[in-house]
Amino acid sequence: MYDIAIVGAGPAGATLARILGASHSVLLADKRPAAEACAPHAPGGSKLCGGLLAPAAQKELARQELGLPRELLVGPQLFAVRSVDGDSGLERRYQRHYVNIDRLAFDGWLTGLAAKVADYRPGWRLDSLELAGPNPLLRFETAEGGRAACTARLVVGADGAASLIRRTLGFAAPTRYIAMQAEFTAEGGESSYGAYFDRQLTDHYAWSIPKAGSVLVGAALPSGPGTTKRFNAIVEKMRIAGFGLGEESARSAAPVVRPQRLSDIALGRRSVALLGEAAGLISPSSAEGVSYALRSAAVLARAIEVELRDPVAEYRRLARPLVGEVAGKAVKARLLSSSTFRAAVMLS
User: Fold this and answer.
1) Residues 6 or more apart from 78 whose CB is under 8 A from it?
2) What share of the chain is helix, strand, coil (3-state, %, to 5)?
3) Which of 40, 63, 111, 169 stands the most exposed, by the fewest C-beta atoms within 10 Å?
4) Cα–Cα dist 74/85, whole Å
5) Whether 235 contacts 261, CB under 8 Å
6) Mean pLDDT in the chain?
7) pLDDT tens by residue, 101-152
C-alpha cells in the first residue's frame, strides 16, 4: 500500500510527487510512455501543448525554488502579444512576459525530478478506482499489457480534462472544448506571440506561438461537428491578417475544459483529491493551465503535511484563493466573448 497514489504525471502530478516523495511512499502512474509525455503535435490520446510559461507559472517555479535548465528554452523569446479581433478588425499589441519552452522537455524534466523520490510508472493506464474498501483500490493496465493493482491512503487525480477519477467521484465535467493545434513553417520573422478572436467561429480564442523556424497555431473550439472546418477557417483568417504561416506539417487535437461556474471546480472528497485541469483549475479566458497545475499541487502538498488524516478538507480550505481566481477569470471570459466588449478594450 502506498501513502499517496497519483494518476497523471503532467506538471501537477509530477510536482506533487517531487514535493512529497522524500517523506511519503508515492506512486506516480501515467498512461503515456515516458518519451511521449507531451508533444506540440502529439498523437491521439496524448496531451496537446503550446509551450509558453505565463508569469504566474514563473512565479510558482520561483516559489518552489526551481530554475529552468537552458535546454528547456526555445527561441524566439518574445515580449509582446499581437491581438487581432476578427469581428471588429481592430488590432492591438501589448507587452507580456512569457517564457518560450519545449514542453516535451519541460514535462520530462519535472517527471525526472519526481522519479528520483517516487515510484514512477509510465505507460500505466488506470482501468478503475474502487472506493468501497477501507482504502481506495486502483487497477491498471501496464505498459507491457499486463495488469497491476494497488491500494493507497490517498488517491490524487491529476489526469486532465478527461479525468476518469473525477468521473468516478461523480463530479460532472466542466464544459469541454476541443483544442486543435497545427505546426506551420514560418514565413518571415515573428516579433510577437499572437491572439485571434472571431465570435463566428469560437467564443474562446486562437493563438500563434513562434518556435525556432516554425509557428504553432491553435484554437479552443466548441465541441461538436464542424470542428476541423472551423479550425481551417481560423487558420485562413489568420493568414489574411498577416500571421506569416507557411506550409502545415502536423496537426493534433485534445479536449480542454472551460470552467464557467463554481460548481465546475471539484477538489475531491474523502480519500481522493483532484489537481489541475482534472479539478477544473484552468484559466477560462486563456486556457492556461501550467500555473494552476503547479500551484494546486503545492497547495495539496501543504494540506497533506498539515492534516494527513483528512487532507482533502484542508486542501479545499487552502485552495480557496485558486478557486476564486478561476471564478474571476470566468467572468473575464464571458466579457471577452462579446465582440462589443473586446472592441471597447482595444480602443481604450
Assistant:
1) 98, 100, 190, 191, 192, 193, 210
2) 35, 30, 35
3) 63
4) 28
5) no
6) 92
7) 999 899 999 999 999 999 999 999 999 999 988 999 999 999 999 999 999 9
